[in-house]
């Protein structure tokens, strides 16, 4: 766990170079993305988890965090297609239960995490139809999910909208972040996001 701002942590994983987040307030915490394994859940006992999008590497371990609220965009569907996607990467069967979001929003919602303000935003389709950006205003930190990748090119699969990606990143930059945490790779600054190449349509 790396503390990138007071009470704001990232957890880096060698598996898929995944990056998860933990935002703490007074006696409360919120996790950004569940990841693939239950280890993080045992360390963090959040009251809420936010799923940035429904790709398997971001949602599979949600069950391990329960009981907690599971937040996502209203178009975030967690169903058997998540496991179909996982099967392209892993041969062993998935042991566990998929967890659907319990709390959803359309454009923005503000949460109180132990007295700390955390905003969830959806700025339109890009990496998926339902990408969620998590903003911690007092820390100048934005968790961008797979809108941003460091160490590898961002991924545009069949569910991506590359033509809108730059516009979404402009909305992220308009938040004035000091640190942007990608879904994969190390935290970056605003300049990295400004200069990031947008993946071509597939
Ligand atoms: Zn993704």
TrEMBL record:
| UniProt cross-references to CDD domains, sorted A to Z | metallo-hydrolase-like_MBL-fold
Record InterPro entries: Metallo-B-lactamas, NDM-1-like, RibonucZ/Hydroxyglut_hydro
An example of a Pfam family matching this protein is Lactamase_B
Q: What is this protein called?
A: Glyoxylase, beta-lactamase superfamily II
Metallo-beta-lactamase domain location is 17-184
